[in-house]
Amino acid sequence: MSAAREADNIGDVAAFDSPGVVSHDFCDVISVTSAWKSNLVTEATKCVGDDFLFDWPYSTKSDERLLPVFWVSDQNGTIGILYLDNFFPVSPRVQFDPSSGLTLKDLKPVDSGNYTVTVIGPNNTNINIQNVHLLVFEPPQTTNGRLEISSDKINQLKCGHFINRGTPPVTVVWEGPDGSEILSTNYSEGYFVLELPVNSMDGNYSCRLDLNSRNCLASDSPLLMDAVSVVGRRPSNYEKDLLDMRSQVEALN
Question: Contact 30/85 with Cβ under 8 angstroms?
Fold first, then answer.
């Protein structure tokens, strides 16, 4: 079977994961001088559910056509191949438009990574490569769609409850009654925990998301509202010991 006939019978995308499968006999009859049409984006950030266009259009002479064009992710392998004007996606989320490039639809966190497009000329020559680093952000989620402050221990406040901190993971900022910002003591089981010293100030304590980076939350999301808790006078260590002793005595009776 001739190389041209073999090219017409493409049926397995995996068979073209390497430029080496291109027949040299067939390549010898095609001359390619490709060029990128525009300035290409090298860094991009998108949100979960968005579409992303790999805007990598190229141009050739009127009597030329390119051989393989590979779109490859360092995390997920080959996502699409253009071969002899036929496009082979590896997922229904991958779509090709000759006038604009390749679109990856309904983005997911696992789509983050480095992507490369490789345009290959005859005999594996005139190889053009472009790269873009894609970050897919996911908004945080809580059990009831907002932040709440709770406390099940003396001198401790908890802000949450998070079931997903998002991508990249969010943190919270606490604010004391005097307006000063306080760092969480730790994060545990979906809550940012703030341990309060016995002599800490009484008044309103609030927590809010630290939004120093893109978070993909809607502008009216309840998660953007501060959670507030009123803290009154807390017992001293001596008073806490007395309360513990009283509880133990009551338990014995």
Answer: no
With 60 as the cut, is the pLDDT of residue 168 above it? yes
DSSP string, 138-174: B--EETTSS-EEE-SSTTEEEEE-EEE-TBTTP-EEE
Handedness of CA 83, 88, 94, 100 (dihedral sign): positive
Unique residue bearing structure tokens 């789509």: 111
- Taking each continuous run of H as one helix and of E as one strand, the counts in the chain are 3, 21
What SS3 state is found at 52?
A: strand
For the chain, domains (ranges, CATH) are 43-137 (2.60.40.10), 141-237 (2.60.40)
Give phi and psi for 248, each to the nearest 5: -65, -40
CA distances from 228 to 144, 161, 205, 208 (A): 16, 14, 6, 9
For the cut 90, the answer to whether the pLDDT of residue 187 exceeds it is yes
Do 29 and 43 contact (CB within 8 A), yes or no? no
Mean pLDDT of 117-141: 81
Beta-carbon contacts of residue 128 (< 8 Å; ≥ 6 apart)? 34, 36, 58, 118, 119
- What pLDDT was estimated at residue 113? 94
Long-range residue pairs from 89-96, CB within 8 A, at least 24 positions apart, any chain:
89/13, 90/13
> How many Cα atoms occupy the beta-carbon half-sphere of 213 within 13 Å?
16
71 exposure class (CB count in 10 Å sphere: 0-12, 13-18, 19+): buried
